[in-house]
Specification:
Helices cover about 30% and strands about 35% of the residues. With about 180 residues, the chain is α+β, with helices and mostly antiparallel strands. It has a single domain (about 5-10, about 30-160), classed as Nuclear Transport Factor 2, Chain: A, CATH 3.10.450.50.
C-alpha cells in the first residue's frame, strides 16, 4: 500500500462533519455531499459530475496560482487539468466544516507526474506529489456558485525536484523528492 493511500485511509477514518455551531448534524447536508462529489470528480476526471454540481455562471478561484476561472467551461478545464500531467490521481476530502451557505473541506491530494507540468516541469519525472489543501464552496440552492482552492504550490515543485533560492544564498530543496 502506498504512503498516500495509507494517509488517505487515516484521514478518512478521522474525518468528521461539523455544523457552523460545532454540533453533529443528523445526516449529510447538501454542502457536505457536494464537496465530497467535487473531490471524487477531481480524482476520477468526471466532467459530468462537475457539470451537475456547478452553476453555468459559477466562479472557481485558484488562489495558489492567482487565477480565477469564470463559467463552467473554464471550471471544467481547471478541475480536470491535473489529469493532463498526472496519473494515479487521488483526492480525499477529510474534515468538512459546514457554513451557512456551503462548506469548507480539508483534503489530501496526490498524483504521479508523468507528463509535462505547464511551463514549470518540461518532462515527466515519475515522482509522486502529495499536497494538503482546503476548498471552500458557496452553494446557491443545490449547486456551487463559487469555489476556491487554497494550497502551497511551492511544495508541489519541491517534490518534483525544483529548488528555491532565497535572497542571501539560502537554498530550499527536498533531499529525496522521489520518496
Amino acid at each position: 500500500m502506498t504512503m498516500r493511500r495509507l494517509w488517505g485511509l487515516l484521514v478518512l477514518a478521522g474525518s468528521t462533519a461539523c455544523s457552523g455551531a460545532g454540533e453533529q448534524t443528523a445526516g449529510p447536508t447538501q454542502g457536505e455531499l457536494t464537496i465530497q462529489l467535487l473531490a471524487q470528480a477531481i480524482a476520477n476526471a468526471d466532467t459530468a459530475t462537475v457539470l451537475n454540481i456547478f452553476w453555468p455562471e459559477a466562479t472557481y478561484d485558484d488562489f495558489a496560482n492567482q487565477q480565477s476561472h469564470q463559467g463552467i467551461q473554464e471550471i471544467v478545464a481547471y478541475v480536470m487539468s491535473t489529469h493532463t500531467w498526472g496519473d494515479d490521481v487521488y483526492m480525499n476530502m477529510g474534515r468538512i466544516h459546514l457554513t451557512l451557505t456551503g462548506a469548507v473541506g480539508e483534503w489530501v491530494f496526490s498524483a504521479v507526474q508523468n507528463r509535462p507540468l505547464d511551463d514549470h516541469i518540461p518532462e515527466g519525472t515519475g515522482r509522486e506529489i502529495v499536497l494538503n489543501g482546503v476548498t471552500v464552496i458557496e452553494m446557491e440552492g443545490d449547486r456551487i456558485i463559487r469555489a476556491a482552492d487554497y494550497t502551497d504550490t511551492a511544495l508541489l515543485l519541491l517534490q518534483l525536484g525544483s529548488r528555491i533560492e532565497l535572497p542571501g544564498g539560502q537554498i530550499i530543496e527536498i533531499d529525496d523528492p522521489g520518496r
